[in-house]
Amino acid sequence: MNNKNFLKPKVVISKCIEFEHCRWNGNIIKSNFVKVLKTYVEFHPVCAEVEIGLGVPREPIKIIKSERLKLIQPATMREYTKNMEKFAETFLTSISDIDGFIMKFKSPSCGLYETKYYYDEKPGSAVIEKGAGLFGKAVLDKFPNLSIETEGRLMNLRIREH
Question: Is residue 2 part of a domain?
Fold first, then answer.
């Protein structure tokens, strides 16, 4: 049978993975796996950082862990926590019939498991923990039963096959 007879799964993907030069440094992430999937998947690319008003290129952001997680841009000392939380709520409520997510590995916005949490915003500040980025955490909380993975972990054959 031809793949035209099957519904394509709908997957939200970090836009910087094979879709647009929107990373903090203006780069794009190459992924042979995602490139192959483009034939079989209906992708819905999104860049949470651009959506909250950060340009391309932009100064990097990072997560500071104190009494709560804060999304800070150290170069400007601007906090983007509320902006990201509002975007995540609005965007994730607006999507329907999504089958999964492919997120940017280690990103302070889209990361899932390996995003660094820092003690403070100063250069050289210690990493005190790792966890999800703010948008990634909202995805995991809202869609706990969907397939949600990062492009970094999808390079691992065992994870990818699972």
Answer: no
